[in-house]
Amino acid sequence: MRYRRIAAFPFVWAALFLGLLVLVPHEAREPYFRVENEASKALAALGCFVAAYTFERGDYMRKAWSFNAWCYLLLLCRDITMTFVAPGALLGGVHVEAVEGTLALLANISSVWGTLLLARAWSIAGLEFPGSRLARLAVVVVAAVFAIGVSGTDLLVDGRELVAGNLGALHGVASDLGDIFGLCLLAPMILTAVAMSGGVLKWPWGLLTACLVFWLFYDATATFSHLFPGHDVGGRLAKETFRALACACEFAAGLAQRRVVTEPVEADDG
């Protein structure tokens, strides 16, 4: 599969999701969104594992991709728990909300750590990021401001609910913290993608960067929905579309990484 076809897959996936949505009756849209949600996460996990097992056991890149894969698997476990266990129930004497929150926290830690390892791949190789130190610092600061601006409000809301004793807000707090730290890594990921722009490695890192950008859009849509609930026209559809694009980009990045490692280098146009 050519790199350009791999890079086009996320948009095909999102178009398929939107196209089938037209055929779904309004009352059945919630189950349809749930199916899309889980299918997208499973797809992302698959892509990460494909990339991870391209490398030998103990390899730096295998660890990086594996952490990202486990993020999506843990989120799937959380979703299964939320679907089949009633709120307020006990699992081994522990409230189900605490279990869901713990799974969300572990998933976000795994995602942040895996993304950090991938973002550091260029410097681990002993190479310098492009641009001056001041320019690189500016990119990091801008990314951090965006991350806090997008997810900071949600963290305050969920944090207040958690302090008030609402265990159901635990997974929200975990997700908000993961979003903030994960989006802060958008800067080094962009710098890594730019550093690798001269060869085929631009494809996996470019797709990973696109994944983070779509998650940024997803979080921004969610924040807007919380701040202006009366103006949430199409907000749910936008969130699901951005989630589908983000997960599909992670899957495509995994395929591109495998192709870089296992297939001969071809023309840079893919």
Please tell me about this protein's structure.
This protein is mostly helical and 270 residues long. It has one domain (3-262). Helix content is 76%, strand content 1%. It has 10 helices and 2 strands, in the order αααββααααααα. The protein has helices at 3-21, 29-52, 60-84, 96-119, 121-124, 133-163, 170-184, 186-195, 202-227, 235-262, and strands spanning 90-91, 94-95. It has a two-stranded antiparallel ribbon. It is globular. The relative contact order is 0.16.
Helix/strand layout:
Blueprint: H1 3-21, H2 29-52, H3 60-84, E1 90-91, E2 94-95, H4 96-119, H5 121-124, H6 133-163, H7 170-184, H8 186-195, H9 202-227, H10 235-262
Antiparallel strand pairs: 1-2
Helix pairs in contact: 1-10, 2-3, 2-10, 3-4, 4-7, 4-8, 6-7, 6-8, 6-9, 8-9, 9-10
Quick gist of this model?
The chain has helices spanning 3-21, 29-52, 60-84, 96-119, 121-124, 133-163, 170-184, 186-195, 202-227, 235-262, and strands at 90-91, 94-95.
Characteristic key phrases:
270 residues; mainly alpha; two-stranded antiparallel sheet; 10 helices; globular
